[in-house]
Design a protein that fits this description.
4-stranded mixed beta sheet, 4-stranded antiparallel beta sheet, 8 strands, 15% strand
Length: 281
């Protein structure tokens, strides 16, 4: 049988220095590959950023399931697991995702009926009014009134904001992006949402000085349009489908290669997916 290498020398030194020594023995077998106890303990340290002895039973069980899922894919793909160190969980996950695509193919596209149902659910929630807004912030009422006079005389709001405003976004012309009614202090909220697109407020006192707002666009309250919510619905359904597709593929591959967890080598209570032996088909 092949064995997955224990851990790099640097990780051993780091663990010894911090008192997080590892144990010996085989924790699981995936196909013809032995997964050593120390290998998974090193993975726990890398994945949780804490000594493996302090990882709870629930977290250790979940991470063992994920680790064995990855080993199943690597073994099924005929790749040497040693090239994907257990102490590099992000690199392992990236490698496994690529191999899953090769082994399992793309997940099914979202069903149109599911998309319609998701869009209908999103549109059933009415949202408050929103407005796209710029601002400038001045220290005193006199400074704010002087800036407001310049605007009345035809000054460009963005240029004036860059020149006189002390707001953090002054360099961007005072752009506040899209604001939602009810999300600001009441006096500021009332001023902004009383304006129509293109209008500019008078000086408004706030916690940090005096504000002048320019409303660029107003979106009334109501249900969001389909073209706005459908991309997010499709993205969410796609993620769900991809997770289900990957899980089903890993279950199939596990049945092909075989998985055995050596329970007596575990130092935690394991109740994961591989508690029962899976014999190779």
């Amino acid at each position: 049988m092949r064995r997955i290498g224990v851990i790099p020398a640097l990780c051993v030194l780091a663990c010894l220095a911090s008192g997080c020594g590892t144990d010996e023995g085989v924790l699981a077998r995936v196909g013809e590959v032995d997964v050593e106890v120390a290998t998974f303990q090193a993975h726990l340290v890398a994945a949780t950023d804490e000594p493996w002895q302090g990882v709870t039973d629930a977290v250790a069980s979940r991470l063992l399931d994920q680790f064995l899922d990855q080993e199943i894919v690597l073994v099924a793909a005929g790749r040497e697991s040693q090239t994907v160190p257990p102490t590099a969980p992000v690199a392992r996950s990236t490698r496994v995702r690529r191999l899953l695509d090769e082994l399992c193919g793309p997940p099914p596209a979202a069903d149109d009926d599911e998309v319609d149902a998701g869009v209908a659910a999103a549109q059933s929630v009415e949202r408050p009014a929103r407005a796209r807004v710029r601002q400038m912030l001045l220290d005193t009422l006199e400074e704010a009134e002087a800036a407001r006079l310049e605007l009345d005389e035809g000054a460009d709001f963005e240029e004036l904001s860059r020149r006189v405003s002390r707001a953090p976004n002054a360099g961007g012309g005072g752009d506040l992006g899209l604001l939602t009614e009810g999300g600001l202090p009441k006096n500021l909220d009332e001023v902004i949402f009383a304006l129509s697109a293109g209008e500019i407020s008078e000086a408004v006192p706030g916690p940090s000085g005096y504000h002048i707002f320019q409303v660029l666009e107003v979106f009334p309250p109501g249900s969001p349009p389909r073209e706005e919510v459908e991309p997010e619905v499709r993205r969410r359904l796609g993620e769900i489908a991809a997770r289900g597709h990957a899980s089903e593929c890993v279950r199939r591959l596990a049945g092909e290669v075989g998985v055995t967890v050596v329970q007596e080598q575990l130092w935690f209570r394991y109740e994961g997916r591989y508690a029962e032996v899976i014999h190779a088909s």
